[in-house]
Amino acid sequence: MTSFAPDSIVLNRKLPLWYQVSQSLRASILGRSPQDSLRLPTEEQLAGHYGVSVLTMRQALKELEDEGLITRHRRRGTFIEPSAQRGAPVRLLGSVDAIVAQQSGMTTELLDYGTVAVPSGLAGHFPQHAEVATYHRLRSEEKTGEPTNHARNYVRPDLAERIDPADLIRWPMTKVLRDVVGASISRITDTVEARLADPETARLLQVPLLSPILHYTGVTYDEEGQALDVAVIHYRGDRFSFTVTLDAH
Q1: Domains of the chain by range and CATH?
Q2: I need a surface site. Which of 145, 160, 190, 217 has the fewest CB within 10 A?
Q3: pLDDT reading at 88 higher than 80
């Protein structure tokens, strides 16, 4: 069994450090290898890894403990809950790195991709384009193979020319646009609402027809306020919840 090694993250000083650290560590826990130890490094070791104070690290660990992902024992250390892969909430976060981290622990299947006429409901996001590129993916839990969500991304054609579909199996669209295509992302606007599963969603997510799902729409904008990508994602309602944390300072 190998020791648990958390991923690294570039911290955004405009967001609470404990929050960013907790979400990075959360992604590492959910995406861990079956051979990884369930015991976490010490608070001091984790603080050094992330470049934060021990006090900040304790606050981050408390967030994960409250979520049920870890347990802390005096003198024994901190341990990952063996069931941590199941039922983890999805959070709407304040940085692109944190959004990318949310996809850890998932396997992705690219169902199809191509070019379509701009859907009527998205015409306002792509006023200069008659067509957009579309990519349809199904995400499943890495360990169980259970489907958790399916996503359709609608991307500006000039950006799609630089996208290798194979990259979308490895990474979220946000990371591909920023790190591979080189697009400058200024903000992402998220909308979440409750809906009932249509026939396609019921089939892909293996849930009964008309069962509750979470319908997410995320619009990614460039520095000029133009839409780069619109993501429409359907999450299984029995597997995910959304939490928004607001920094009051």
Answers
A1: 17-80 (1.10.10.10), 90-244 (3.40.1410.10)
A2: 145
A3: no
